Amino acid sequence: MIIAFARWLSPEFAVWCDVQIEEIIKGKTVAIQTKSENLISVLTENMRKEFEALEFTFKHQNVSELEKKKLLNQTLRKINFTNLDSLTEYKETLSLTELLDIFQITLSPQDFNRKLKNFGIIKWSQGNWILLDLKFGRNCPFDENSNPRYFKSTFQELLNIVSIN
User: Which residue, 87, 102, 135, sits at the end of a domain?
Assistant: First the structure.
């Protein structure tokens, strides 16, 4: 019920959940490779505690809808995910602009995104680009611009797919 409420309050979180579920259904690998078998239980416990505190605040304080959304987004960022780096293999991500500069590609990020969309690698949803193939990077629904961040290690493969280089 808490996740359903979080999805209702935050469209960005709902989109992120949808993408994760779609990846799981397709059997694709997720961007994070776990080092610990208890990752799910740790994350679940962290989320439960944070959402219980949030639910308590909503019940016992006069909080406007706007304040609820702000508190939810702060909680989601806080959870995102608090101890995840210690439990997972970290892979650095870079913005599309940074990678186009590093790989000396003269195409604009907007034109590159159009190519990625044509190849079914990203899609436009609710005002944001959503990365569909998470072997190339991560979606960042809680960042200010919400654009995907890409792995430098797989960017050359992405360039080959869209026939650049």
Answer: 87
In the chain, which ranges are continuous DSSP H helix?
2-9, 11-26, 39-60, 65-79, 84-87, 96-102, 109-118, 152-161
- Residue 78's domain spans which residues? 2-87
Same-domain status, 7 and 83: yes
Check whether residue 41 and residue 102 sit in a common domain.
Answer: no
The token duo for 1 is 């019920």
Last residue of a domain, one of 87, 120, 141: 87
Digitized pLDDT (tens) for each residue of the chain, 165 residues in all: 566 666 666 667 677 777 777 766 665 544 444 444 455 555 566 677 777 887 888 888 888 878 877 777 777 666 554 344 444 445 778 889 999 999 999 999 999 999 999 999 999 887 888 888 888 888 876 555 668 889 898 999 999 988 875
